Amino acid sequence: MPSPFLSELGLTLPVLAAPMAGGPSTPALVTAAAAAGGLGFLAAGYKTPQALADEIAAVAGASVPFGVSLFAPNPVPVSHPEFRAYAAAVGPEAARYGLSLAGAEPVEDDDHWHDKIDVLRAAPVPVVGFTFGIPAPGIIAALRRTGALLVQSVTSAEEAKAAAEAGVDALAVQAAAAGGHSATLTPRLPLAGTPLAGLIAAVRQAVPLPVIAAGGIAAAADVAAAIRAGADAVAVGTLLLRADEAGTSATHRAALADPARAGTVLTRAFTGRPARGLRNEFTDRYSAAPYGYPALHYLTSPMRKAAAAAGDPERLHLWAGTGYRHATAEPAAAILGRLAGQL
Ligand SMILES: Cc1cc2nc3c(=O)[nH]c(=O)nc-3n(C[C@H](O)[C@H](O)[C@H](O)COP(=O)(O)O)c2cc1C
Fold it and tell me: Which among 245, 276, 320, 248 is positioned nearest to 24, based on CA atoms?
């Protein structure tokens, strides 16, 4: 039986394409997920408001259900002495690409939060998702008036309760196996590490909202297990990183397919906020990085762009969840359809 949540959105497949900022989520990936009967998310993070508006226009033209995911402000300000020490420590890595971090100052911003809300008010979309923070009541009310269904990412039953109190319509429940940044609302605290099925059950018990489950889903059996545990749908990120329609860099794609890679690790070395990615020289060397988001993101960003362009996987954030060995290079519809195969 399809859940009422799926019917409301007009979905026939309970397998969604999770938002992936930094390139992988493209309008083509989002429309491919919809064509398969699921739903995809555009990732607003790091983009300018105009680039977001352009992507929304591209997908809206296809007249399919889709979502937009935003980084909601929940800053992790960096301590200036720690920032200076970290800039000095990673300086030699950036210097390989002719970049100097001497004199770098921390940048603290909110990823154009209010301008992106204005974009979504001017060009309403079917679903809006939030990660990192829970928006203020006025923002939730304003987006609700656009008709959007609001989805809050959470990593625990406590966060689920806070999201329900804030008045969102559904939860993206993310286990620590997930690739990319954790959605945790308390990024300075260790992640709980509860396996996905247990997390779904705990959230289900705590709040009555529909659940989209994510984190470490690698095969059809994982999807079936998540639905059995109480999820209305699942979302996959990592499994789509090598999909034909994804905008993942060639360097990142090659690393995901490299059998010599030594698994994944939770790291704040690249961005100052916990994220899961493939282990590489940078995550090994700088595991003691300070907290500080987005200051560390901006500090290491030019180095990472240069590394990606040069085909250097050792100085690039290779975001990946624990299921990365199952990521395949083929059309997204084939990946999503196969995942739904045991339902
Ligand atoms: C490259 C990458 C970028 C991501 N960017 C975002 C993002 O912009 N917003 C968000 O809510 N989650 C983001 N995530 C998390 C995913 O939405 C999702 O929770 C996660 O990929 C699920 O776990 P899985 O990777 O094991 O499938 C990202 C994940 C990856 C791998």
Answer: 248
Give helix 220-228 / helix 196-206 axis angle, nearest 10°.
Answer: 30
Pocket of ligand 1 (CB under 6 A): 18-22, 24, 43, 45, 69, 129, 131, 153, 174, 177-180, 183, 214-217, 235-239, 319, 321, 323
Q: Is there a single domain that holds both residue 136 and residue 178? A: yes
117 and 56 in one domain? yes
User: Ligand 1 atom closest to Cα of 132?
Assistant: 11
* Residue listed under structure tokens 């020490």: 85
Q: Are 182 and 192 in contact (CB under 8 A)?
A: no
Number of domains composing the chain: 2
- pLDDT per residue over 6-61, tens digit each? 888 889 999 999 999 999 999 999 999 999 999 999 999 999 999 999 999 999 99
Instruction: Report the alpha-carbon distance of residue 7 to residue 94 in Å, rounded.
Output: 49
Q: What length does the chain have?
A: 343
Range of the domain at 313: 79-109+262-317
**What share of the chain in percent tops pLDDT 90?**
96
Strand partners, 211: 171
In a domain, 322, yes or no: no
Q: Between residues 2 and 160, which one has the greater pLDDT?
A: 160
Calculate how far, in angstroms, residue 237's C-alpha sits from the geometric centre of ligand 1: 5
Co-location of 11 and 84 in the same domain:
no
Q: Look up residue 84 and give its two tokens.
A: 């200076």
Task: Work out the mean pLDDT of the chain and round it to a whole number.
Answer: 97
Residue whose CA is closest, atom 21 of ligand 1?
A: 237
